[in-house]
Write a structure and sequence with these properties.
203 residues, 5-stranded parallel β-sheet, 5 strands, alpha/beta
């Protein structure tokens, strides 16, 4: 039996404390993703790097931990499927457990890069704090292999990942959710810039 649909709660019934919290929260996101010429230039440079990677027969490799790993997987799928730029991320549980068991968690992604990356590839390293040892070690490995590197970080302005890439994105926020949202939004903007459209069918 169909249940009657519930009517939406009127806006004036929102708890004032909740409204104040959310207004502040949305304001933080707005400030963190405020656009300027530097962000535009970084997104444009990301597009150019990815297109050069494709022209060289390379792939874009996304890496991250936790929420950033989820973002890495999403970006790799969309870049490959929607923008026709070959891409992947190291999300296979067997690979992770094997390499972490053999080389330690701080070095497993570096060894994944060593084993799987090749000349012409681009590494996109995502770490909200910019201090994840396994991400930093993977970037160092990518540098020894002369790969292009794009970094995304946040939190403290002096985090070690922030200046290690050819293109570097930094979010001025100490909220993990806001940092991760900005990272995904900026990379999605770069993907859509490759495509040349903001709206397109799913298939």
């Amino acid at each position: 039996m169909l249940q009657p649909s519930r009517q939406p709660m009127p806006a004036e019934s929102v708890d004032p404390d909740h409204k104040a919290f959310l207004a502040d929260y949305m304001g933080r996101l707005h400030r963190a993703t405020a656009v300027d010429d530097a962000i535009f230039a970084s997104i444009s440079a990301t597009r150019a790097t990815w297109l050069r990677t494709r022209e060289q027969g390379g792939r874009v490799i996304f890496i991250g931990n936790g929420g950033s790993a989820g973002i890495a997987s999403h970006l790799a799928i969309d870049l490959a499927k929607n923008a026709s730029v070959p891409a992947l991320c190291f999300s296979d549980a067997s690979m992770m457990s094997c390499l972490a068991n053999d080389y330690g968690f701080e070095d497993w992604i570096a060894h994944a890069v060593r084993l799987s990356a090749r000349a012409g590839d681009c590494l996109v390293a995502i770490s909200s704090s910019g201090r994840s040892k396994n991400i930093l070690n993977a970037v160092a490995q990518a540098r020894t292999m002369k790969l292009d590197v794009i970094t995304l970080s946040g939190m403290n302005a002096d985090n070690p990942l922030r200046n290690l890439g050819d293109v570097n994105f930094w979010v001025d926020s100490r909220s993990y959710n806001i940092v991760e949202t900005a990272h995904q939004f900026w990379m999605m903007a770069a993907i859509d810039l490759v495509i040349g459209r903001a709206e397109y069918p799913a298939s």
